[in-house]
Amino acid sequence: MGVTVVGAGIVGLLTAWRLRREGHAVTLVAPDVGRDATYAAAGMLAPISEVQYGQDRLYPIMTASRAEYSEFLAELARAVDAPTGWRENGTILLAADRSDRDAVADLVGVQQAHGMEVEPMTSSVLRRREPALAPGVSKGWDVPSDHQVDPRLLTGALAEALAAPLDPAAFPEAGPAARQLRETVVALERDDDGAAGPAAPRYRLTLASGEELVDERVVLAPGLGYGRIAGIPRRHPLPLRPVHGDVLRLRVHSDQLAPGEEQLITATIRAMVRGRSVYLVPRGDGGIVVGASSREDGMAGTRAGAVQELLDDAATILPAVKDMELEEITTRARPGTPDDIPLLGALDDEPGVVVSTGYSRHGILLAPIGARLAAALVGPPRSDAPRAAELSAADAALLASMDPARATPDDPSVPSDPSEPHPVGAPDASGEPAAAGMSPGPTPVPPTPAQKG
Ligand SMILES: Cc1cc2nc3c(=O)[nH]c(=O)nc-3n(C[C@H](O)[C@H](O)[C@H](O)COP(=O)(O)OP(=O)(O)OC[C@H]3O[C@@H](n4cnc5c(N)ncnc54)[C@H](O)[C@@H]3O)c2cc1C
């Protein structure tokens, strides 16, 4: 079956790969590969150290996706010989001072209450593991299973795997090499002109170049770009909002290392410093990613104060930061939702159109489960029937928690009269065809407390 995937961030790429692997003929449409939120991401796969208060519905999704990562990476390695930045280097939680220590200890209590593996470290163990940490930092907790990938490498590997000839012995069911179009989708509508008629709808995508594509299934994974595609039904406007993050990339200078040493820190460090969170992610190539701010001030450019805070906080934990080379400052917007949970499901009355966006702070971690469930909603390659009915109870529960229509009537993002669904491409309430800027774009919602990721 032909499936067009819109968007080539981690979510679109991984979904396209999954669909190809299952036997679909995939077209991937995006103006770039991995240049939006995915480009900024640190790549932490951290279902434990990313735990926040009151996000109980998110933990099972994070844990389930983390469990699928190893198999996904092994399979990708069978398709292409390309690095992904996967490092099993673990994570250490730190607190800079006494009040930070109470705050981190409270959060560790929540993690442990959920049965997560987090162990306190004595100061001597901490010092032996990470001798470059500031002498005043004495309290740490070990999270041995929170690891990392490098999202820039991973997206490159996925793009390569989509185009690569696949060994039929390793991928007996795979579809053809994906068609990859560097284009922006501006509109989506139902196409009832096909031979099968309305019973088996097809969908027409209009591209910014004016070209049109028609396909049997569509997966919309354009991150925040969702709101700029005309023609999407407006029954459930998605509560998407940009949550900007500033992130730094540092390089350790060779004279900062002892003979034989390759990195100043071995584990990913997540610290609370004067009530603010900061993380330092050591890459395999000797770089360190320091992040990240979390802002809803609408400023698309870098906030100078955020850079200063990140450097101050990182240097409080690792003093050598001040002598490193500042290689890059990146700012991107996370596709945020009110509860940090993705928006994944088929559109009302249009089971052939699957939405997969809103991955907020966790898109790198959650992409494997998002891709697998989106592919399940698309259905098998050689039948028109969606496969949702065959989902396991566990998958059905995960999908229910990511249902794009989950917002309650009290949620300000929900329209007062959501009773009339708009078929794809149909006129909206004004009688005009839904147009860019009128479709369910980013809807203002109350900001959540500052979080990092
Ligand atoms: C500073 C920072 C640090 C982060 N760190 C982590 C981390 O450590 N771990 C983690 O799990 N997550 C992290 N995240 C979150 C993660 O980056 C996002 O959740 C994830 O990248 C979202 O992926 P996506 O594919 O949905 O969207 P994006 O990466 O934003 O990609 C969207 C894609 O859609 C395309 N597109 C948009 N509109 C259209 C259109 N109309 N037609 C065609 N294509 C279109 C874009 O060009 C782009 O290719 C971080 C985010 C930030 C900003």
Automatic annotation (TrEMBL):
> Composition bias, kind Pro residues: at what positions?
441-453
Q: Which residues form the FAD dependent oxidoreductase domain?
A: 3-377
Listed InterPro entries: FAD-dep_OxRdtase, FAD/NAD-bd_sf
Supply the alphabetized keyword list. Answer: Oxidoreductase
Q: Identify the domain of life.
A: Bacteria
Pfam families with a match to the protein in the record: DAO
Keyword Oxidoreductase tagged? yes
Which residue stretches belong to region Disordered? 400-453
Q: Where is the composition biased (Low complexity)?
A: 400-417
**UniProt cross-references to PANTHER family, sorted A to Z:** GLYCINE OXIDASE, SARCOSINE DEHYDROGENASE-RELATED
Q: What is this protein called?
A: Glycine oxidase ThiO
Organism (species): Nesterenkonia halobia
The organism's taxonomic lineage, starting at the top? Bacteria, Bacillati, Actinomycetota, Actinomycetes, Micrococcales
Q: Which gene encodes it?
A: thiO
